[in-house]
Amino acid sequence: MKTEERRVIRLSEYAPYPFRVDSLALAFDLDPAKTRVQATLRLTRTGTAADLELDGEDMTLVSVALDGETLPADRYTAGDGKLVVRGVPDAFTLDVVTEFAPAENTKLEGLYVSDGMFCTQCEAQGFRRITYFPDRPDVMTRYTVTLRADKAAYPVLLSNGNRIEQGDLDGGRHFAVWEDPFNKPSYLFALVAGDLERVQDGFRTRSGRDIELNIWVEHGNGPRCTFAMESLKKAMKWDEDVYGLEYDLDLFNVVAVSAFNMGAMENKSLNIFNAKAILADPDTATDAEYEYVESVVAHEYFHNWTGNRITCRDWFQLSLKEGLTVFRDQQFSADMRSAPVERINQVRSLRGRQFPEDGGPLAHPVRPDSYIEINNFYTATVYDKGAEVIRMMHRLLGAEAYRKGIDLYVERHDGTAATCDDFAAAMADAGGRDLSQFKLWYSQAGTPQLRVTETYEDGVYALTIRQHTDPTPGQPDKRPLHIPLEVGFLDRTGQPLPVRLEGEDTAADSRVLELREAEQTFRFTGLAEKPVPSLNRGFTAPVRLVETPHTDADRALLMAHDPDTFARWEAGQQYAVDLLLKMVAARAAGSNEGPDTAAFVEALGSSAADESLDAAFRAQVLTLPSDDFLAEQMAVIDIDGIHAAREALRRDIARAHGALFRRLRDTHRAAAGPFAPTAEGAGHRALANAALSYLGLDAANAKLALEQYRAADNMTDAMAALRVLNDLDVPERAEALDHFHDRFKGDPLVLDKWFSLQAMSQRPDTLARLKDLMGHPAFSMRNPNRVRALIGVFANANPVRFHAEDGAGYAFLVDRVLELNSLNPQIGARLLQPMGRWRRMEAARKALMTRELDRVLATPDLAPDVYEIASKARA
Ligand code: ARG
Ligand code: ZN
């Protein structure tokens, strides 16, 4: 396909579909080699189009009948992703029969086979690989689904809604009929057929209805579903309590599958999950994975209202459901666990993934205005920045008005396909606020940069804040955004000072400033001394504070005394960023004289030792900003310099606090007690293991790590020990890794951790080892979890080896992307993203990276997914 032939889809070209689909009946004869689908659509014309156009791909069209009469071939054309039936009446029934081979579907979109079971993934445009249909989210209808399959191989037959009939058929086959009483778009259709174990439970809703809950897994995995089931029930309760939203059917099914492109999918009443997001037990899941399961289960459940009952008009509105649902799952996690620690983790991931996206060639607005392949827009920007946008509205309106806004949004749009503007309008109306400038957050890409300066004269303290957003692709000029920024003041001893704006009577400990202009000055009175400002408390806005009036002493003061827990952590991070960048610069200049790190190291130790603080929080304090976040602050990224500086600072910290770390490791390991997947236990383990990671910088502590690995009664402690050994050149490393392999070789999901450890290793032989591991019997390019564990981790979490000077890391990645181009282009396109960083590298790496991108672009038959990322990354 030539470049100019690739279709760019634009928001500005949105037009409603000219027909209404009154109902859809689907009948499947399931067979891995040849599945036959009969679709019966009842249609009514609502627009002016003479012809009916349906989407469809990669299928054999067997027949088309209109009102019961098989159509002659000259009445329709099929090809180029469309079926066009010419000259249709105003209201009619269309029967379409298609065939395809699910076993050969390696893209994992539409209907495919995963470990011997049939399953579907239709978001965003997989339904068109099952039958011809207007595969767009604003076409909603009622589905009745008949499934027929071999009874012995596929005893369980599931689809959306309620099962209304089932029975046996000739030839060892059986059937089930499912009816979904709710209108839905095609992307929420799902079916599952397989031999599965059921874990059953129930939930009584606040209005007293009893809901049957099932989690379906591969036989033997039942015991690993307990935590997911508990999470589901908590999520159902929480959504009633906090959002007033109750489940609307009598049955809720969740199925875990091993081959899945994403985390999970919210199909109406039949959520399908990557097994990784369901299965958890102490032997196989870390605390972080337990937390992941809890949040993904909640996220998909929350979609039942924010996504399913109210869906998206078109895919440009993806953040309408995803940003909102991520914000909801973040609120849920904050309520289940430590709110500040949750916020810290969100901000880490925003900075590690979204900020780089927003500052690179793939930058796009939360509501994109064009795409070639929509699957490329399931991004950190749409999800996580989208959640920040909702969070800012929550902040600007306050919790109560926000909830009124949600109620109004549901009242206005339930049962329909809505837009981001509809959501903002409900919030503006409920809150009595003008959000017109605020809505720029939806349409303008890029991370705003704030520069803050201060003056203090005659008892008046003034903060001048300038905002600026760099150009992004297609958006050379940026306008000032409406930014909520929470600030507080401290005195020199760390006591809070009142925040009182000039001309106002009320003083508060903290207040949200609203920035609207390129430059604004806020004047505060009633201050007997110049305060130390605490800025962007709780990370009220997803911005970068590139200039603040803080001195090192201010940062140490905020680290120790800011009443906002998040801001205490943030002060430590900013302090560390400053020092690390100075260390990188010194190293680049060939100087041995780096900055003095002693005061920082001291402050870090005091926080870590402060028993009045939450253990989970102290573990966060001990974790320095990531290589990626540091890279974001440099005009030209010095990969090796960043890594060396970070390691050097870690060594300084380890040297200064050896005794403290030994104590923390022992006492918090003891405090964690026997394993239970609670937030509290996880906090103790996190702190003990943060301490271990510092101790482990000294090879003499390899034994300690090996002992911990051996004694661990849970995966968190085992992995922490392995991570320490992984970078050391000691015999204990191979001993532990081999032991892990032997213990888990039958469980590919656990073996992924073993693959990832090796992909992350700093050792010089890492790439050679990866190439060997691709031949491991458990490895397969057809399973996205394996690909992410080995190749994704290498490209995203091992900067030093991935960016090796000879370019071998880039060539390896691109070889894999080209393999995936035909196998699973969605995964291939994702893997390619780190290559977009070439612009910020020095000349030699720039040349190597662009050569590899050019190699992708010169490849014939590039899938649109891969083409879009490669061409934008190269531009
Ligand atoms: N809606 C799903 C979720 O956020 C994600 C599914 C995306 N799948 C895809 N192929 N793009 O929970
Ligand atoms: Zn989602």
TrEMBL record:
Cofactor (UniProt): Zn(2+)
InterPro entries reported for this sequence: Aminopeptidase_N-like_N, Aminopeptidase_N-like_N_sf, PepN_Ig-like_sf, Peptidase_M1, Peptidase_M1_dom, Peptidase_M1_pepN, Peptidase_M1_pepN_C, Peptidase_M1_pepN_C_sf
Function noted in UniProt: Aminopeptidase N is involved in the degradation of intracellular peptides generated by protein breakdown during normal growth as well as in response to nutrient starvation.
Highest rank taxon of the organism: Bacteria
Pfam families: DUF3458, DUF3458_C, Peptidase_M1, Peptidase_M1_N
Keywords: Aminopeptidase, Hydrolase, Metal-binding, Metalloprotease, Protease, Zinc
UniProt-listed GO biological process terms: proteolysis
Name of the protein in its database record: Aminopeptidase N
Coiled coil: none
Keyword Protease: yes
GO-annotated molecular function: alanyl aminopeptidase activity; metallopeptidase activity; zinc ion binding
Catalyzed reaction equations: Release of an N-terminal amino acid, Xaa-|-Yaa- from a peptide, amide or arylamide. Xaa is preferably Ala, but may be most amino acids including Pro (slow action). When a terminal hydrophobic residue is followed by a prolyl residue, the two may be released as an intact Xaa-Pro dipeptide
Keyword Ligase annotated: no
